[in-house]
């Protein structure tokens, strides 16, 4: 029976879809080529820092598949079932919807900026530009 970790299989499929070899993903991700080889063969589990490096090279759907596979490999089955939907291999709705709470200081900062942005249209425009440049698309 094949004992290759699911994350290794998903990573391999991503390489194939991009027509990348191990050297290409190593160069793009910054992960040593020998380590990439160990990951792809299942000889070494993918660590979280390497997972993050691989994700920087992949599109959104590939990232989701790789992280889901990595969680299935890393978590005990009962924990994986708590985090991932068994049918779709996607995050459970409760997990997907969770956001960390804001500290009192962060809430105060947001209130400060909200009042300043309402009062100063030029500042609001600058803030809007910075926000878009940072990646917000709402």
- The overall pLDDT, averaged over residues, is 92
- Distance from N terminus to C terminus (CA atoms, Å) equals 47 Å
Helical stretch tally: 9
Give the C-level CATH assignment of the largest domain.
Mainly Alpha
Extended strand count: 0
Q: Which structural class fits the helix and strand makeup?
A: mainly alpha
Major sheet description: none
CATH architecture of the largest domain: Orthogonal Bundle
Q: Gyration radius, to the nearest Å?
A: 20 Å
For the record, the count of structural domains works out to 2
Rough shape? elongated
Question: What is shown here, in short?
Answer:
The chain contains nine helices and no strands. The protein has about 140 residues and is an all-alpha fold.
Explain what the structure shows.
The protein folds into 2 domains: 6-97, lambda repressor-like DNA-binding domains (434 Repressor (Amino-terminal Domain)), CATH 1.10.260; 104-133, no CATH class. The longest helix is centred in the last third of the chain and has 16 residues, at 104-119. The chain has helices at 6-18, 22-29, 33-41, 48-55, 60-74, 77-83, 93-97, 104-119, 121-133. The chain is mainly alpha-helical. The chain is built from 9 helices and no strands.
């Amino acid at each position: 029976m094949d004992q290759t970790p699911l994350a290794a299989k998903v990573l391999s499929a991503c390489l194939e879809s991009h027509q990348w070899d191990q050297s290409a993903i190593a160069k793009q991700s910054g992960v040593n080529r020998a380590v990439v080889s160990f990951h792809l063969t299942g000889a070494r589990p993918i660590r979280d820092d390497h997972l993050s490096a691989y994700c920087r090279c992949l599109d959104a759907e590939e990232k989701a598949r790789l992280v889901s596979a990595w969680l299935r490999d890393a978590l005990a089955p009962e924990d994986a079932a708590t985090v991932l939907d068994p049918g779709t291999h996607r995050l459970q709705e409760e997990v997907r919807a969770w956001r960390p709470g804001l500290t009192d200081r962060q809430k105060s900062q947001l209130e400060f900026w909200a009042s300043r942005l309402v009062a100063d249209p030029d500042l609001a425009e600058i803030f809007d530009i910075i926000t878009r440049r940072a990646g917000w698309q709402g």
